[in-house]
Amino acid sequence: MARSDELVFAPLGGVGEIGMNLSIYGLGNRHQRAWLAVDLGVSFGDEEHLPGIDLIMPDISFLEKERKNLMGLVLTHAHEDHFGAIIDLWPKLKCPIYATRFSAALFEAKCAAERNAPEIPVTVVPSGGRVDIGPFNVEFIPVAHSIPEAHALAIHTEAGIVLHTGDWKIDPTPTLGAPTDEKRLRELGEQGVLALIGDSTNAVRDGRSPSEAEVARTIIELVKSAKGRVAVTTFASNVARIKAVAEAAKAADREVVVVGRAMERVVQVARETGYLDGVQNFRSPEVYGHLPPDKVLALCTGSQGESRAALARIANDDHPEITLNRGDSVIFSSRTIPGNEKAVSSIVNNLVLQGVEIITDRDALVHVSGHPRRDELRDLISWVKPQLLIPVHGEALHLHEHAKLARAAGVPRVLVCRDGDLVKLGPGDPGIVGEVPSGRLYKDGTILEDSKSRAVIERRRMAFSGCAFVAIAMTAQGELADDPEVDLVGIPEKNRAGELFDDIVFDAVMSTIEGLPKARRRDPDALGESVRRAVRAVINEHWGKKPPCLVHVLTV
Predict the structure, then answer these.
(1) CB-based contacts of 533: which residues, under 8 Å, 6+ apart?
(2) Rounded distance, CA 220 to CA 249, Å?
(3) In the chain, how long is the greatest CA-to-CA distance?
(4) Which residues contact 266 (CB under 8 A, 6 or more apart)?
(5) CA-CA distance, 104 to 206, in Å (whole number)?
(6) What residues does 233 pair with on adjacent strands?
(7) Which of 19, 85, 266, 518 lies 20 to 30 Å (CA to CA) from residue 537?
(8) Tens digit of pLDDT for each residue in 438-464?
(9) Which three-class secondary structure state does DSSP give residue 388?
(10) Domain Metallo-beta-lactamase spans what residues (predicted)?
């Protein structure tokens, strides 16, 4: 029988994938548990496989059922893959939220920018501070990452201490914020850590992630040597990089023009929270065209190829204020997230065609990851000395490599799990003891759909093979009242022999109706299904694809 102080863990997102992070911890027994949620993030839709889907979010149906036992939601940091789903999903939970100052301020600014965002209170916890959330005592331990105030969470419970790393790296010379708190992590290791739930993003990469200070030096050199206009694009949330770009501009006697709403929002929050103290004021886009080419630097959103972001509009030459010409330079101070390669490549090619010089991390050290490589993972294990390690925040290969490294580093127990697995952490032998509901929600415009949504499935089919629409008017006697109407969307105009598909489908509809007995013609459902099958079959015969077919039968 389960003990009353049993501690369990379940990832509802972010394990076996990059993004959409949501982890939950439970304390109690199988009949009654108090729950703590960590992060509530999004991943981004892929137009090829999920046309029209803006964001993907974790399924929180389990937490909705356990809402009265959900003590709170704690944020490790303010990246979209860790807090981007809160505005949409919090109204289903209405639990307390805990975050440090910068994360809370950026979330408040995000809410202010959203139309009809709910009022969502956030309790601010100091960096390095501790807070009691039900039976959980949560400690915010500073770690280096690519955004201010990233924190690992030491979750203190009567069953033991769990270290939930969030996103982190070891950077002895961060250009902004505190380095990873090695001293406190070593102290926890001496105290005894039951489980380490750890970031696996760079577990396949040897060595150590370079420092932000090295990137800052490179950017200064590149900007000082540039002849024409310079544009720099980076993740809007990377305030350390924004500061480095500002310092490079100052060293080259250039004004910084901020281009893009997301960048403007982060800059405003960073100034309000003191992270850009001493950095010169930035200029608005209207000023750009009035400055000499060698006196301006545009700091742009759009490093991931986002079609509505500033850089895409500049590359397409349709931005109202910002233009680039032959001899100008664009620095991509970012890495391309898997899945965004085509969009980024399109922007790069458009800029090259305009004569713009492109500089990426293939050419110079203009970006470093905010995640730990293998030597850093080994360091953390040696500091914390966990009894159990569970790799999270990564795809299958990342999790596998992190687990292999942990075993080689002498961690007594290593467990690889998947989204939805319920893992007993202690006391006693750890292991997967059950499952909780998990899955994906799709944000489609302003509507949330589950992964089995008819709209999502049908749109994917239509994106692949178009759609056929047929309207038929029948008399009560089962005779055609008029010629059928055929409308083909996304289907070729002609087959290989040059015959019009409109005619092919019309003939198939007519022959199907004429071939049915009158009793079936008087049954709208039976008639509609017969025509639907015939249309799909004839299009497949001439094209090799079976599009969805919608048949409307009207009795007059």
Answers:
(1) none
(2) 7
(3) 87
(4) 106, 236, 237, 239, 242
(5) 34
(6) 300, 332
(7) 518
(8) 999 888 777 788 877 777 777 778 888
(9) strand
(10) 21-219
